[in-house]
Amino acid sequence: MGASGSPQAALETATWPELRRLVKEEPSAGIAFQTAPGIRTSFEFTTGGINTAIYLQWLRSTCLSNGVVFKRAALEHVTDAVRPPTSGIARLVINCTG
Hints:
Layout: H1 7-25, E1 31-34, E2 47-50, H2 52-65
Antiparallel strand pairs: 1-2
Organism: Sporothrix stenoceras
GO molecular function: D-amino-acid oxidase activity
Keywords: Oxidoreductase
């Protein structure tokens, strides 16, 4: 978890509601919350687990159904993704290099 007030904490605050929605409303997205039943500690938390093989297929399908155009490219550096030389400026880049 990011320190209170940090950029990481802001990203977490923005991300968790959408993860909760996907777990509840989009089971085909391959996202689940994971807990450790039966383990007793002084600290308890819930973490998200994303099956990337399922999630990335779901994400692509969802994007295509909303008119997103995908372009694949071999890049010299990840920063090259924001301005591919032949197609103008990308509005969104998803890095799925693993």
